Amino acid sequence: IAKSCLKRPLSIGVVRGSRRLSSSGNRSPVEYVQGQSPKARLREYFYYVDHQGMLFLDDAKMKNFTSCFKEQKFLEFFTKRIRRNDYGRYEDSFPWVSLCGRERNYIRCYDTPVVFTDLKSNENGEWRFHYAYTNFSVPFEPQRLCELPENGRIYHPIDKQFGGVSLVRSAISLRIQDSFVFDETSGGGHEATSAYSPPVGIKWDGETYFLTNELLPLLRQDPTRLSATD
Question: Looking at the record's lineage, which domain of life comes first (predicted)?
Answer without folding.
Answer: Eukaryota
